[in-house]
Amino acid sequence: MENKKNNFKRVAENRTNKIINMISLLGNLDNTSFYEYTDEEVEAIFSAIQTELDKQHEKLIKKNNNGKKKRFEL
Questions:
Q1: Measuring CA to CA, how many Å separate 40 from each of 23, 26, 45, 73?
Q2: Global pTM?
Q3: Are the CB atoms for 23 and 42 separated by under 8 Å?
Q4: Cβ density class 43-70: b for 16+ within 10 Å, e for less
Q5: What share of the chain is helix, strand, coil (3-state, %, to 5)?
């Protein structure tokens, strides 16, 4: 069990850092000497990223809860 936990931690940290670095590189697109873009294009980029983040977040949460969706309760 500990090996699976260590594997998860190692791979998750590596992948998360790669994703953070790639997202940071998007900021380089702000150089208007090289790039021209609209607010709509920027929104499309971040919307696509957010959609995928939401999908993967839900997938991991479901797995962690043994496939059971959390019910809303007050």
A1: 18, 15, 9, 37
A2: 0.77
A3: no
A4: eeeeeeeeeeeeeeeeeeeeeeeeeeee
A5: 75, 0, 25
State the number of CA atoms in the 13 A half-sphere of 57 facing the CB: 6
Give the rounded distance of the alpha carbon of 65 from its chain centre: 20
Rounded distance, CA 26 to CA 10, Å? 25
DSSP state of 27: G
Question: Quick one: how far is CA 1 from the chain centroid?
Answer: 26
Tell me, what amino acid is at 25? L
Structure tokens that stand for 44 in this block: 């499309």
Residues of the chain with pLDDT under 50: none
